[in-house]
Amino acid sequence: RQKVREAAPYPILKIKVGTPRDAEILRMIRDEAPEKTLYVDANTGWTAKQALARIPMLQEYGVEFVEQPLPPDDLEGLRLLRSRSALPIIADESCETAADVARLVGAVDGVNIKLAKCGSLREAVRIVHAARAHGMRVMLGCMIESTLGIAAAVQLAPLVDYVDLDGAALLQEDRFTGPGLNADGSLRFNDEPGLGVRTA
Questions:
Q1: Domain of 108, in residue numbers
Q2: Is 0.85 topped by the overall pTM?
Q3: CATH number for the domain that contains residue 55
Q4: Where are the alpha helices (DSSP H) in 16-120?
Q5: For residue range 6-51, what is the model confidence (pLDDT) as tens digits?
């Protein structure tokens, strides 16, 4: 409960699931934050059968989508899940580069792009274009990384549907300042040359 209260300024909460207490945790979060948008990330931890059993509960708590419910290479399972799921399925570990998008058609509803995963802004833009060509949603995510990495990702925010760039907020010490996440969960954009990053 304390973590949910600490996140009060943020309009969106992303919850890692895959424990026997998932329903209890989601119930508590909804009690504390009935109006917040919820995303769920299963981090490759379920089988298709487990995901199908859990998605009705996630839907009951108003979850918007499920990120990477199955292992990255289980495309058959993802196709089965997507065909029966009431919630959109977003690929994370299943999509590293633009070349992965075509094989995910029909298996997921969208992809999560991370610069640390795809390697460059150019490749990230290629993923956006490939996903849009197939009618997919696009999410922009991150690892735990400094403002230097987050600032690069912020440049892509206008191209995507969902933004999850809280990586620098999870650091004890960030040696950089610049574009990134504000205290209220909104994005701080760059109005300087380059990435707009300075050493703290």
A1: 2-199
A2: yes
A3: 3.20.20.120
A4: 22-32, 48-60, 75-84, 101-104, 115-118
A5: 888 899 999 999 999 999 999 999 999 999 999 999 999 999 999 9
